[in-house]
């Protein structure tokens, strides 16, 4: 905006401090005495500004133009520095907000990952599917084992199952064999002696003493077997309930996967945008700091003040003279 720029260059705020440098040599110089004879133009459509000054003293013209030229160069440097400092202030004001936004988004993503125990939504869905399959297979195995234990329990309530369980007890087998030996001895001795024989009576007493022990051992073995089977069935049922609860929780998480994935993607997208913005602002701050530390004058004096020339008079007679 060259019109505005020229107005700024001719304003008292810009020009008056520059003209003060000429007061030692020309005390009469002030903004009010110079502004009427000083002009700034734009050369055509170029980016070049031309400064002209009119006065009756040629030396004063050149000296004043040199001061003004140097002053405008300093103005351009200070103006650039001011803009850079404003840019730095804006960046410094925005950076903490962007950093806080990045930190908040990172925390939201971390919280989401911790709540659902995943790193990536796709891996999360696959892991849930694998866990569900494993639990389904485990519950199937538990049901098969429970059916087998239930069959064993029913068998213990029947004679065939009782006999099979008793045969597995060493203590019961020992007592039973002793009882069988006594029966065989009783049969042999009965053939040799009469029923009132002391030997026969001794064997009978031994049988009478052994029978309760055999019965008690049989009952103990059966009760132990039943207790073991029932305990196993209760353990299997409790384990199946735990797996059922875990399976229900997994199903709930599976239903939440689409929403979790959307939330994760939205947070990640916002984080990428915020991180990119943070990077751009940090790079911009670095560039502005470098530029502010440099002393390069943005404007250049392409033509120094030339020797003053007489201005043609508006009077035809004076112009002819």
Could you walk me through the main structural features you see in this protein, from its secondary elements to its overall organization?
The protein has 321 residues and is mostly helical. It is built from 9 helices and 2 strands, in the order αααββαααααα. The chain has a two-stranded antiparallel sheet with strand order 1-2. A hairpin with a 6-residue loop joins strand 1 (38-42) and strand 2 (49-53). Helix 4 runs antiparallel to helix 8. It starts with a helix and ends with a helix.
How would you summarize the topology of this molecule?
Elements: H1 2-9, H2 12-19, H3 31-34, E1 38-42, E2 49-53, H4 58-116, H5 121-156, H6 159-167, H7 170-192, H8 198-293, H9 316-320
Helix pairs in contact: 2-4, 4-8, 5-6, 5-8, 7-8
Task: Briefly characterize the structure.
The chain has helices at 2-9, 12-19, 31-34, 58-116, 121-156, 159-167, 170-192, 198-293, 316-320; strands at 38-42, 49-53. Helices cover 77% and strands 3% of the residues.
């Amino acid at each position: 905006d060259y019109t505005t720029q020229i107005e700024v260059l001719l304003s008292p705020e810009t020009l008056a401090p520059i003209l003060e440098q000429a007061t030692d040599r020309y005390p009469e110089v002030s903004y009010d005495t110079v502004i009427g004879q000083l002009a700034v133009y734009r050369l055509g459509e170029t980016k070049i500004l031309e400064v002209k000054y009119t006065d009756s003293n040629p030396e004063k013209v050149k000296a004043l133009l040199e001061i003004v030229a140097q002053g405008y160069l300093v103005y351009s440097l200070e103006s650039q520095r001011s803009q850079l400092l404003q840019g730095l202030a804006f960046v410094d004001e925005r950076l903490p907000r962007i950093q806080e936004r990045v930190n908040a988004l990172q925390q939201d993503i971390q919280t989401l990952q911790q709540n659902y125990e995943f790193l990536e939504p796709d891996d999360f869905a696959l892991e849930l599917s694998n866990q569900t399959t494993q639990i389904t297979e485990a519950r199937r195995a538990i049901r098969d084992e429970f059916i087998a234990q239930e069959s064993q329990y029913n068998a213990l309530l029947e004679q065939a199952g009782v006999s099979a369980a008793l045969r597995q007890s060493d203590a019961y087998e020992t007592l039973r064999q002793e009882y069988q030996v006594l029966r065989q001895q009783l049969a042999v001795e009965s053939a040799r002696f009469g029923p009132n024989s002391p030997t026969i009576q001794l064997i009978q007493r031994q049988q009478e003493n052994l029978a309760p022990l055999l019965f008690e051992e049989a009952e103990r073995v059966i009760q132990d077997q039943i207790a073991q089977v029932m305990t196993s069935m209760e353990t299997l049922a409790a384990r199946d309930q735990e797996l059922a609860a875990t399976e229900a929780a997994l199903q709930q998480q599976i239903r939440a996967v689409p929403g979790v994935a959307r939330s994760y993607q939205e947070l990640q997208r916002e984080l990428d945008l915020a991180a990119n913005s943070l990077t751009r602002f940090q790079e911009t701050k670095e560039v502005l700091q470098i530029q502010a530390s440099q002393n390069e004058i943005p404007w250049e004096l392409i033509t120094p003040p030339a020797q003053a020339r007489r201005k043609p008079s508006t009077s035809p007679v004076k112009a002819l003279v």
